[in-house]
Structure formats: structure tokens, C-alpha cells
Amino acid sequence: MSEYHISRIHPSSRREIRQMEALLEKEGIRRDRNLDYSAGLFDDDYNLAATGSCFKNTLRCMAVDSSHQGEGLMNVIVSHLMDYQYERGILDLFLYTKCNTAKFFSDLGFYEIARVQDRLVFMENRRTGFSDYLARLKKETEQSSAFQRSAGKDTGCLSGAVIMNANPFTLGHQYLVETAASMCGLLHVFVVSEEASLVPFQVRKKLVQEGCSHLSNVVIHETGSYMISNATFPSYFLKDDDTVIRSHAVLDIEIFKKIAAALGISTRFVGEEPFSQVTNIYNQVMKEQLEYGGIACHIIPRKANEAGIISASRVRQMIHDGDMAGFRSAVPACTYDFFTSPEAEPVIRAVRETDQVVHY
Q1: Average pLDDT in the 132-152 region?
Q2: How far is Cα 143 from Cα 211, in angstroms, rounded to an integer?
């Protein structure tokens, strides 16, 4: 085997970035837009033979030049990325890979969580990671006062679920939860834990908890690393945007079906999507996949006020523009109180400093 050295690929190094992009393209991969560390294996002439990257707790964009395959270079790249993550204190690692390479990563100590047939496999480095997560959800549920109150309640569906980002929590979110809760004996509300929103997760979760505290049959959970937004879903080995959206939806539903089986969830509630084309496609695929899997899907019309349909995007626009009167009419008291407190100043500053407040 030739001699190689491994080093970081710096975002400022145009030569290294060009080499990485050329290698990825040669192997049918696009450079992912979400990367916070990249490394390469270079030969003595400083030609790139293999590369791989990280984004938060995931490994991404891993490829070996076809002329160097069979030399064990992917093992070196993966080991390097794992060591880098461990040094950062990130011990629970995840990756997405093509179906035909899942066996390779399995041999390196990764375990399958779910797959989209003929498209991708979602894996983690903990043998019992996902099963431990399911056990934690069951324990949270059984220990909740909502579970105790719901026992024996005669409703059309015994147990339902809502998954929300709540960026931030609006009257629209509250209406969705209230409507779903009125149709269930027990409602599980999952708050997306991923830090890819202008409003931090701990704030989003706190506002959801406060905004749902008047509902006696609601239990609130975190999604952990098992559900992510379309913004950070890896798309580098999928051919087009439509395939990316549909693959993300199918993978999410495969994971959700396992959660539903563990918690006895029979129905999922989602808000109608009049604005976002991406979310609308996602919801269409989700409804088809859920019903095919024997889980009902109720799409709830959006709540509106005198200014029109309430959405988190429009609420963020109000924060961005300083329209606090409009903001107050679109959010519950808990959200308004937070955003008019000194604690919210960093969040407000982040919203006002970005142009990307509305998601399509």
C-alpha cells in the first residue's frame, strides 16, 4: 500500500476543497452543505485519495477514490472521524449511508436504526441506542400524570402523537395540540431536539411545556437524535431535491412507526401546510406511509387570526421586523412573556440578524 498522511481539510484552502469536491463528485456524492469538520488522506504528492466529514454528531461525505479502493482507506477515515468526535466529547455517533455500503459500516461497529429501501440506511455506534431511547420514552410516559389520568378514558383513539419544532411556540401550535388532545385519551408531544433553529431547543421545549400545561392528557418528549429537520438531513448521495424530501419523510416514518409500536400510538396529528412546498410534500408522503403502516393520520387546519393563518415563519418575521403587536396576537402568553424578557435578548438578536426567517 502507498504511503498516506491524514490531515484536516480547511474551509479556507481552496485547493483542498476543490480536491474534496472533485473526489466526491467522481464517486457520485455532492458535498453536503452542513459540515463542521473535514479530513483527507493524501499521498506523497498531496493528491487526495479519501475523504470524510462530520456535522455535529454525524459522520458524512465519506468516499475513497476508485483507484485506491481495496487499500483499507475508508477504515482509516472512519477511525479518524470517530477519534475526532470522541475528543470533542461526542460519544454517540450517527451516519447515513447507501444500502449497498451498510454492511461495511456494520463491520466497523455501527448498527442499523432504520432504512429507506434502495436509498439509504440510518445507523448509530451504540448497539442499544435506539432501544434505550424507546425504553426512556415508555418510562417517561408511565411516570407522567397524564398517563395516570388517561387510564380507562373512552375516546376515539387511545393514544396519539404530535411532532413539532415550535420555532417558536405559537397559537397555531397550541391549537394543534389542543385539538389533538381533545380526540385522544393520551397525547404524546415530541419536540424536535436538534439545534438547527433560531430558537434554542431548551427554550422551545420550555415554551411547549408551559403552553400545554392546561391539558391534563399530554406528555412531552424530546426526539433526541432520531428525528432531524429537513435543513440538516444529509442529501449528498441522493440525486435530486424531490428524492431528498421523500427519503427524509419515509425514513422519519420508519422511525416513528417503531416509536408508535413501543408507546401504543395509533394516530398522528399534523398541521395543514399552506405555505411550505417542502413540508407539504413531506406531509403527503407521511400520510401515505403512516396509513400503509396502519397508523391513522389527521391533518388539522391551521389556526388563523385577523392577520391570516398563524405560522412560526410569520411569527419569526414579526420578531425580525419588531412588530410586537402582531407577535402578541399570534402567540400564547408564555411565548410573549419570554420574548419580552431580558432572557430572550440573544434569541431576538439572532432572529433580527438573519435574512432566513421564513422557510419554504
Answers
A1: 87
A2: 21
Cell of 149: 389520568
Amino acid at 177: V
Distance CA 154, CA 200 (A): 37
Please write down the HEC assignment for all residues of 311-322.
CHHHHHHHHHHC
Dihedral sign from CA coordinates of 40, 44, 46, 50: negative
Q: Which three cell numbers stand for residue 108?
A: 466497523
| Residues 17, 23: Cα–Cα separation, whole Å | 10
Q: How far is CA 242 from CA 47, 274, 279, 286, in A?
A: 34, 18, 11, 14
Of 154, 167, 187, the residue nearest 265 (C-alpha): 187
Which of 93-97, 130-134, 356-360 shows the lowest mean pLDDT across its residues? 356-360
> What nine digits make up the cell of 256?
416513528
Return d(Cα 216, Cα 149) in angstroms, integer: 7
**What pLDDT does residue 360 have?**
43
Residue 359 is predicted with a pLDDT of 57
Q: How many distinct helices (H) and strands (E) make up the chain? A: 13, 14
Res 3: pLDDT? 86
- The answer on pLDDT for 61 being more than 70 is yes
DSSP 254-269: HHHHHHHHHHT--EEE
Q: For residues 321 and 190, give the distance between their C-alpha atoms in angstroms, rounded to a whole number.
A: 30
Residue of 255, 231, 238 whose CA lies nearest to 313 = 231
Cell of 80: 479518524
Q: In this predicted structure, what is the pLDDT of residue 29?
A: 87
- Under the banding of pLDDT at 50, 70 and 90, the label for residue 355 is confident
SS (HEC) of 54-113: EECCEEEEEEECHHHCCCCHHHHHHHHHHHHHHHCCCCCCEEEECHHHHHHHHHCCCEEE
- Judge whether 147 and 219 are in contact, CB under 8 Å: yes
The answer, yes or no, to whether residue 155 has pLDDT greater than 70, is: no
Residue 348: how many other CB atoms lie within 10 Å: 16
Which amino acid type is present at position 59? L
